[in-house]
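Q: What structure does this chain adopt?
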Amino acid sequence: MEALTKDKTTTQQDLFPINGTDYIEFYVGNAKQAAHFYQTAFGFNIVAYRGPETGSRDTVSYVLQQGKIRFVLTNALSPDHDISRHVLVHGDGVKVLALWVDDAEYAFNTAVANGAKAAQKLQVHKDEHGQVRTASIHTYGETIHTFVERKDYHGAFFPGFEARKSQMEIQPIGLKYIDHCVGNVELGMMDKWVEFYQKVMGFNLLVTFDDKDISTKYTALMSKVVSNGNGYIKFPINEPADGVKKSQIEEYLDFYRSAGVQHIAIATDDIIHTVDELRRRGIDFLRVPDTYYETVMDRVGEIKEDLKELQRLNILIDRDEEGYLLQIFTKPVQDRPTVFYEIIQREGARSFGKGNFKALFEAIEREQELRGTL
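A:
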């Protein structure tokens, strides 16, 4: 099975090794239709399936993959199932951020010993292709981390799943791996969850943004980014800050009805091609005014891409001491203004686009105003 990491040298010893993001599982209202969306719009291939035909009587799951990214889309088949309750409360959203580890039992025991709340003790899943060992802990909101140990498994995804292929011709769009996943938490809770990742999993505090860094005329938020030692896992944690009007974090919390995953940043090596394809397939993006491009080169310096192409696609540019990055943000991909995606191309930069925060947040506020939630 293909490793789900970006090649990178380990820089620090973790409390337990994390090799990358194993999968991200969404609880959704209709997994079949959601799978169709991710195939046609984002270019994911179906690689595995679990449902009544495979012996699962109460849930259906589709596994989709592109590059080193795996999404699992799961819905329940009865209204009294906990997944149905989750979707009723939150809408479609991320339930599981699964982490690929060398030893699931050791990772779980270490995390719990350091203060994590257990969600599921060690389970061993077996079929003719081998075994997968998993264990889970709670994090912010109703989100959980599942530790996945799959060194002894050679199937399509997981015991209980059958290998499947998309029934249509799929055209991938160059999505490579998960760059980072952003969590929104309630006012006053950011430091608690930063401390959780530091204490429970040995993560480092990578960078801090305060309300002076991330603010507009009307709204503000604060953010801290934690990362594991090898840098494969990066979790920015956001909380609201005082502002004249309701911030995007408050809007998310109102509609998701708890803390949760706000957006998933996906890396590409050719953002112009990727975004061109996404726009052609109907994906809506936040938009910054064309005046952004009048002065951006004064701030970021020389880049290899054609500025006219970046402006045509409304792609943002930023630079840090190690290089530059290109990024763009979709609008929410469901009717509730909750989960959205960032497409990012890194040309050496390791930062998160601080120079674009004001333009980005003003774009989000314009969308909030249209929704009547600003």
